């Protein structure tokens, strides 16, 4: 997964992170809804004394990580949320370019055993991480599969709601090499514009709805059965925001909020 060996193109989503006030509660919820196993204890590779746990899929791969928000983080304004990591081979150069373009640095570049990371916001204010990962020893040619267009228990779609879709598309195109081809007309809600990394459709950009407090990314996690997942959300103390609604291709998508307050999406078939 490092810059010399990865086949993940620059701008790929290579990791996802749930920031939460209750990792044990999140483990129960996402275990029931998605089928993930979230470790009961912090990963030893996580440095700096933070509680960081791996999210393990049914196939044994990693879907992402869980960061337990401690009292200091909460006092500093951190709240439960899902975050995405974009791959860049040059974290420091990308920070400088983003700041020069009106984005902001929120967590300085930091070296961890798994790579160099930083947290930034785009010029409209949507937060995300950038990362140049270090692959595990003996797996130097390892690529991230946290994102998959088709597979359950992976994030399958990345959706940006923003105050200025045109400017956001130009920003991600310039700094991460994304493409933007195709759109769906949502009537009064505006255009739903599709995003690509290379030939792969990774998600879309849409105008922010009036009830949204700020621009943000929503990540749609693949599930095996949308109705089973909906029932699990309700049974496990989550909140259903909308859906399931049929999407092009015949699958279904829905949005929810987990018991700790992090917003998420789901996508999958109806069985």
Automatic annotation (TrEMBL):
User: Sorted alphabetically, which CDD domains does this protein's record hold?
Assistant: SgaA_N_like
Transmembrane stretches in the record are: none
- Every VOC domain range: 12-133, 151-269
Q: Which InterPro entries match?
A: Anthracycline_SecMetBiosynth, Glyas_Bleomycin-R_OHBP_Dase, Glyas_Fos-R_dOase_dom, VOC_core
What is the name of this protein? Answer: VOC domain-containing protein
Q: Which organism is it from?
A: Sphingopyxis indica
| Species classification | Bacteria, Pseudomonadati, Pseudomonadota, Alphaproteobacteria, Sphingomonadales
């Amino acid at each position: 997964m490092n810059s010399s060996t990865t086949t993940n193109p620059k701008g790929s989503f290579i990791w996802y992170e749930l920031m939460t006030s209750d990792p044990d509660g999140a483990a129960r919820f996402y275990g029931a809804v998605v089928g993930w196993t979230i470790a009961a204890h912090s990963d030893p590779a996580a440095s700096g004394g933070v509680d960081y746990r791996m999210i393990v899929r049914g196939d044994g791969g990693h879907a992402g990580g869980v960061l337990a928000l401690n009292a200091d983080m909460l006092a500093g304004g951190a709240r439960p949320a899902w975050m995405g990591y974009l791959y860049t081979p040059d974290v420091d150069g990308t920070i400088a370019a983003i700041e020069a373009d009106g984005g902001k640095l929120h967590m300085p570049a930091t070296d961890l055993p798994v790579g160099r990371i930083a947290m930034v916001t785009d010029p409209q204010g949507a937060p995300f991480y950038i990362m140049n990962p270090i692959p595990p020893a003996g797996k130097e040619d390892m690529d991230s599969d946290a994102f998959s267009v088709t597979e359950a228990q992976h994030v399958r779609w990345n959706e940006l709601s923003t105050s200025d879709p045109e400017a956001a598309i130009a920003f991600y195109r310039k700094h991460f090499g994304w493409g933007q081809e195709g759109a769906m007309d949502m009537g009064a809600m505006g255009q739903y514009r599709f995003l690509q990394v290379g030939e792969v459709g990774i998600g879309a950009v849409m105008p922010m709805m009036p009830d949204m407090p700020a621009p943000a990314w929503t990540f749609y996690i693949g599930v095996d059965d949308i109705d089973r997942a909906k029932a699990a959300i309700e049974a496990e103390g989550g909140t259903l925001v909308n859906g399931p609604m049929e999407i092009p291709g015949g699958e279904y998508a829905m949005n929810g909020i987990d018991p700790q307050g992090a917003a998420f999406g789901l996508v999958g078939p109806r069985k």
